[in-house]
Amino acid sequence: MSSAPYVIDESARSQDADIWFALPPGFLPLPLRELIEAGNSQAEAAHPGDTLRPLLEALPDVETRQRLLADLGPVLRTAQLLVEVGTIHCSLGLHTDDEGDRGLLLSMFTLTWRATGWAPRGILAARAAANAEGAEHIEVLDLACGPASLVQTRLTGPPEAGFAAQRQLLQVTAYVPCPDGQRVAILTLATTAVEHAGHYRALLGDIAGSVSFDNPLSAVSSDVPDED
Questions:
Q1: What is the pLDDT of residue 77?
Q2: Each residue of 45-66: b (16+ CB within 10 Å) or e?
Q3: How high is the pLDDT of residue 85?
Q4: For the domain 28-209, what is the CATH code?
Q5: How far is it, in rounded angstroms, from Cα 138 to Cα 130?
Q6: Residue 20 DSSP symbol
């Protein structure tokens, strides 16, 4: 049986890229800066829904589209906050509840950088986990890219969270220190499906396991054969 192919985002080939990761099926990217620009635009032609059109067209039914459109305002506010704290990637997770009513489970994945004073990477990972407030589950991860930690917490979603507002929110966070020992990549997966905590921990653990600080595409030659 062949596995589903990975879709390589254009950013993975950027000269400025310094971290690579892979997301499993079910995640759709949210263009944070484009959403902010569309929301702030005075032009009538600029509408946030236009920016999200590819995402909306990928949704399974009209009800799901309407649900997300209703949360568009909070998404715009959240986008602004995420950019301000250094988030460089955000994706919306859409998965079927195979163990329940087969409804749609929504989640949000983000990747954020945190600058820190130099320390051995194992210390940075342990320190980040120890400083997490309200942690109900902590793991030490030994990834291919180095030491890391994973923390699970629960909190009440802020108004900016849209569908999560005033509801219990499960948040799973992986702290992956950079090889230079001066930055930590923070991978976060948040969802209101708190009853599936174990699955979301495993899911984020798999995503963290794909992180690389060395270009994994460098071994794939992009040279075009010379023509005689």
A1: 58
A2: eeebeebbeebbeebeeeeebe
A3: 75
A4: 3.40.1000
A5: 9
A6: B
Cα 219–Cα 144–Cα 86 angle in degrees, nearest 5: 90
Helices (H), the chain: 32-40, 48-51, 53-57, 62-70, 72-84, 121-130, 197-209
Distance between CA atoms of residues 166 and 10, nearest Å: 36
Handedness of CA 84, 86, 88, 91 (dihedral sign): negative
Looking at the DSSP assignment, which residues form a beta bridge with residue 84? none
Which residues, listed in sequence order, are joined to residue 183 by a DSSP beta bridge?
A: 115
State phi, psi for 127 to the nearest 5 degrees: -65, -40
Q: Which residues pair with 175 in a beta bridge?
A: 149, 186
- Listed as ranges, residues in the chain with pLDDT below 70 are 1-6, 33-56, 58-60, 64, 67-83, 100-102, 156-167, 218-228
Q: What is the pLDDT of residues 38-94, one digit of tens each?
A: 555 544 444 445 556 666 676 667 776 776 665 555 545 555 666 677 788 888 887
How many other β-carbons are positioned within 10 Å of the β-carbon of residue 37? Answer: 14
Residue 85's identity, in one-letter code, is: V
Distance in angstroms (rounded) separating the CA atoms of residues 76 and 33:
10
Q: How many CB atoms lie within 10 A of CB 219?
A: 6
Would you call 176 exposed, middle or buried from its count of C-beta atoms within 10 A (0-12, 13-18, 19+)? buried
Vertex 31: Cα angle to 52 and 201 (nearest 5): 105
Rounded to the nearest 5°, which phi and psi values hold at 216? -75, -10
d(CA 93, CA 8): 18
- Amino acid occupying residue 215: N
